[in-house]
Amino acid sequence: MDDSSAHAALNSMESPIVVPPHIPARQEAVKDRDYGFLSKAVEEAYEGVRCGDGGPFGAVVVKDDQVIISCHNMVLRHMDPTAHAEVTAVREACKKLERYDLSDCEIFASCEPCPMCFGAIHLSKMKRLVYGAQAEAALAIGFDDFIADAIRGTAYYQKANLEIKRADGSLAEAAEQIFENTKEKFQMY
Ligand SMILES: [Zn+2]
Predict the structure, then answer these.
(1) Beta bridge partner(s), residue 59
(2) Helix, strand or coil, per DSSP, at residue 75
(3) Where does the CMP/dCMP-type deaminase domain lie (predicted)?
(4) What's the pLDDT tens digit per position in 127-143?
């Protein structure tokens, strides 16, 4: 699919895009403004596939009604499993603005964010998230069902293929002391 067919696919949607009800404050139909930014994120998703950078996911960061960063999935390009579109967009937006607080920004994601991306969006304090596709659309072509966990609270840790072990005793104590020992250096939010 190229850009024009991406547009066609978007334009052919009969009903307005509605953010699913699990974001209670965002139940109202997404307005034209959002539609434009979301379309840009979808274009980015196609662009990422076209140039071989990664999976079909795009994300756009908007500040004061202006797109400041437009990114797509870079997992293949960077050989980095964390280089999802939204994480990349958060990183690039922070670099561009030279700060780690994006509380005056919004993010538009072509697809429902995975837990990692949702975490990055949350940590950046982004004031608003608008996404296009529901995770099921990605799952349908084989993407990991892990991606649906973030907003829905359906974490499936048992599916992860690794052993998870929590330290105890003096090792845990030493690791936890880091916070007490360094707290003067950090002014928390
Ligand atoms: Zn992600």
Answers:
(1) 71, 109
(2) helix
(3) 32-146
(4) 999 989 888 888 788 78
* Residue tagged active-site, from 43, 44, 86, 112: 86
| Dist. CA 75–CA 82, nearest whole Å | 7
pLDDT at 17: 53
Q: How far apart are CA 86 and CA 50, in angstroms?
A: 18
* Residue whose pair of structure tokens reads 């005056």 in the numeric block: 104
- Per-residue pLDDT, 169: 85
Distance, CA of 82 to chain centre: 11
Distance 140 CA to ligand 1 centre (A): 16
pLDDT the model gives residue 28: 54
Ligand 1 centroid distance, CA of 36 (Å)? 22
User: Alpha-carbon dihedral of residues 43, 49, 50, 52, nearest 10 degrees?
Assistant: 140
Please say if 86 is a catalytic residue: yes
- Token couple for 71: 């990114």
Cα of 120 vs centre of ligand 1, distance in Å, is 9
Spans of the chain, pLDDT less than 50? 1-16, 27, 158
